[in-house]
Amino acid sequence: MDKKDLYKKFGLEEPGHTPPDGVRREILGRIHDTLGFREKKVRRFRPALVAASLALVAGGVGATWLLSRRPATAETVAVPAGQVRHIILPDSSEVWLNAATRLTYGEDFRQNREVFLEDGEAFFKVRHDTTAPFVVHAGVIQTRVLGTTFRVKAYRELSNIRVSVVSGKVAVREGNKPLAILGKDQEITYSKTDRKTVETRVEAEETVQWQSGNVVLRSVSFEDIALAIGKAYDVTLVFDRETFSRCESSLVFNTHQSLTEVLDLLRDIQGINYHIQGKEVSISGTGCH
């Protein structure tokens, strides 16, 4: 479908000019938000803005993922904070969903093995099928496999998306742009802010031990640690992001431990102070320099 067909489909006239960069960025931001396969909301957009959005899509700005096949009818699995869930997909592939995770897949999944990680973290054990690749969509990132075990971490609150391979190989892309071919114990971290990637060696099996209640975080940002604690114990950690933006630490805990025990560990490692009030934990400290 070309640009003119897109305008015709939505009953819009094609604009005679390209929107300026500022408008283009705003439109892209809105597209990123609204194509996240969230609950449907009724919104009214100005025709000019919709037209400009279509122009960007037709012009090839992230065309592959922007126009990815959204399931007309979908199955959604939502796991609340403080819980972990194991599911079996229609093709017999297995998925473990971490706390506060939302996963969607179409009713035609047997013919089209695509899942959409709308929010959260998931570990996939994919049934091998050379005729039908298995694809995980997480924001602008797509991970494609034939049969392997890997995890995708894509919480909306975090500034990055991570893909780690426990066994086999996966191909990671951003729209039409190949990012990496990863093998066992390799991980790619994609920055949502500057769209840069970093590949590292990891003990991939450690990254998915949350399935059994063991949370292992190695050399991660403070926001990663705060989010992991918050999701595991269904609380919100409030802290000054600028103060802790340069902090990188490691933390290992078990979800059978109490929240205060885990926060005491974090205090010893990071030198923070904390105060618990209901479901909110206030964090203070000098951060890292």
From TrEMBL:
The chain crosses the membrane at residues 48-67. The keyword Membrane applies. This is FecR family protein. It comes from the Bacteria. Keywords: Membrane, Transmembrane, Transmembrane helix. Signal peptide: none annotated. PANTHER family: PERIPLASMIC SIGNAL SENSOR AND SIGMA FACTOR ACTIVATOR FECR-RELATED, PROTEIN FECR. Residues 216-283 form the Protein FecR C-terminal domain. Residues 76-170 form the FecR protein domain. InterPro entries: FecR (IPR006860), FecR_C (IPR032508), Ferrdict_sens_TM (IPR012373). It holds the Pfam family FecR. GO terms for molecular function: sigma factor antagonist activity.
